[in-house]
Amino acid sequence: MTGPDPDATALDLPPLDPLPDATQKYFDVCTEKLGLIPNVLAAYAFDTGKLDAFSGLYNNLMLAESGLSKLEREMIAVAVSSINRCFYCLVAHGAAVRHLSGDPMLGEALVMNYRYAEITDKQRAMLDFAVKMTEESYRIEETDRQALRDAGFSDRDIWDIAAVASFYNMSNRMASAVGMQPNTDYHGQAR
Amino acid sequence: MTGPDPDATALDLPPLDPLPDATQKYFDVCTEKLGLIPNVLAAYAFDTGKLDAFSGLYNNLMLAESGLSKLEREMIAVAVSSINRCFYCLVAHGAAVRHLSGDPMLGEALVMNYRYAEITDKQRAMLDFAVKMTEESYRIEETDRQALRDAGFSDRDIWDIAAVASFYNMSNRMASAVGMQPNTDYHGQAR
Amino acid sequence: MTGPDPDATALDLPPLDPLPDATQKYFDVCTEKLGLIPNVLAAYAFDTGKLDAFSGLYNNLMLAESGLSKLEREMIAVAVSSINRCFYCLVAHGAAVRHLSGDPMLGEALVMNYRYAEITDKQRAMLDFAVKMTEESYRIEETDRQALRDAGFSDRDIWDIAAVASFYNMSNRMASAVGMQPNTDYHGQAR
Amino acid sequence: MTGPDPDATALDLPPLDPLPDATQKYFDVCTEKLGLIPNVLAAYAFDTGKLDAFSGLYNNLMLAESGLSKLEREMIAVAVSSINRCFYCLVAHGAAVRHLSGDPMLGEALVMNYRYAEITDKQRAMLDFAVKMTEESYRIEETDRQALRDAGFSDRDIWDIAAVASFYNMSNRMASAVGMQPNTDYHGQAR
Amino acid sequence: MTGPDPDATALDLPPLDPLPDATQKYFDVCTEKLGLIPNVLAAYAFDTGKLDAFSGLYNNLMLAESGLSKLEREMIAVAVSSINRCFYCLVAHGAAVRHLSGDPMLGEALVMNYRYAEITDKQRAMLDFAVKMTEESYRIEETDRQALRDAGFSDRDIWDIAAVASFYNMSNRMASAVGMQPNTDYHGQAR
Amino acid sequence: MTGPDPDATALDLPPLDPLPDATQKYFDVCTEKLGLIPNVLAAYAFDTGKLDAFSGLYNNLMLAESGLSKLEREMIAVAVSSINRCFYCLVAHGAAVRHLSGDPMLGEALVMNYRYAEITDKQRAMLDFAVKMTEESYRIEETDRQALRDAGFSDRDIWDIAAVASFYNMSNRMASAVGMQPNTDYHGQAR
Question: Which residue in D64, D152, E31, F166 has the most C-beta neighbors within 10 A?
Answer without folding.
Answer: F166
